[in-house]
């Protein structure tokens, strides 16, 4: 379950109204604060598609997470795609390698999450003030000291998968925010979390929705 380095942003599928890319670990989805954090998926897609009218971003991945993202190349496409995400009509799945051996083949985590006001950008479980958050998981493979799992976020809270897996005692390997600090030489070179599956209805140039589109991306670890 060793990781391999990611090379750069990859175009998975390009259509007239939208594009699906595979984001490498370490790249922002949108510009961050300061001039040194302007390189991101959104800016690169604008360079690749200079005639696109945007806005582009529909959803995001954490900087340390790799995998599939869909971006609208027109305002209509961005609206149609965003509506599907908001109504939970999009199917998403991730692959992760987590610490420890899971004792079941599948399960669901229902733990409410909210921002940790004093330690942003961290999120914490809060049963009183947290927003409802649900993650389904399925065991894919076991190693001596870790498990490969498929994760399906039913809700889409910030850092949800990372918080949920850490909360049940199986943090994602390479997670410097929610995992235990490893000894020197034991750290994963990256967060072992990859957005591997995406399914949505295609936004058309006409401003209407077309057929279901399905994309898969194997992780580099």
Structure summary:
With 221 residues, this protein is mainly beta. It is built from three helices and eleven strands. Strands 1, 2, 3, 4, 5, 8, 9, 10 and 11 form a nine-stranded mixed beta sheet that branches.
List the helices and strands and how they pair.
Blueprint: E1 10-14, E2 18-23, H1 41-48, E3 66-72, H2 75-86, E4 91-99, E5 106-110, E6 113-115, E7 123-125, E8 134-142, E9 146-153, H3 160-167, E10 193-203, E11 209-216
Parallel strand pairs: 3-10
Antiparallel strand pairs: 1-2, 2-3, 4-9, 4-10, 5-8, 6-7, 8-9, 10-11
User: Beta-strand percentage?
Assistant: 25-35%
State the helicity in percent bands: 10-25%
Largest sheet: 9 strands, mixed
Shape: globular
Identify low-pLDDT runs. Answer: 1-5
Spell the H/E element sequence: EEHEHEEEEEEHEE
Please identify the structural class as seen in this structure: mainly beta
Number of strands: 11
Q: Would you tell me the overall average pLDDT?
A: 91
Protein described:
With 221 residues, this protein is mainly β. It has 3 helices and 11 strands. The strands form 2 sheets. Strands 1, 2, 3, 4, 5, 8, 9, 10 and 11 form a 9-stranded mixed beta sheet that branches. The longest helix has 12 residues, at 75-86. Mean pLDDT is 91; it is low at 1-5.
């Amino acid at each position: 379950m060793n990781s391999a380095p990611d090379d750069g942003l990859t175009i998975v599928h390009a259509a007239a109204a939208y594009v699906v890319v595979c984001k490498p670990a370490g790249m922002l989805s949108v510009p961050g604060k300061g001039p040194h954090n302007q390189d991101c998926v959104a800016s690169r897609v604008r360079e690749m598609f200079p005639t696109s009218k945007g806005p582009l971003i529909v959803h995001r991945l954490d900087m340390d997470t790799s995998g599939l993202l869909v971006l609208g190349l027109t305002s209509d496409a961005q609206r149609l795609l965003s509506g599907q995400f908001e109504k939970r009509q999009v199917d998403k799945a991730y692959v992760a390698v987590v610490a420890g051996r899971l004792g079941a083949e599948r399960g669901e985590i229902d733990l409410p999450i909210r921002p940790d006001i004093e330690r942003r950008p961290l999120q914490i479980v809060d049963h009183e003030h947290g927003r409802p958050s649900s993650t389904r998981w399925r065991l894919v493979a076991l190693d001596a000291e870790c498990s490969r799992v498929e994760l399906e976020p039913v809700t889409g809270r910030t850092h949800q998968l990372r918080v949920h897996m850490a909360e049940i005692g199986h943090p994602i390997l390479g997670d410097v925010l929610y995992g235990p600090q490893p000894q020197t030489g034991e750290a994963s070179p990256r967060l072992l979390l990859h957005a591997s599956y995406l399914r949505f209805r295609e936004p058309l140039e006409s401003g209407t929705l077309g057929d279901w589109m399905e994309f898969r991306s194997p992780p580099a670890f």
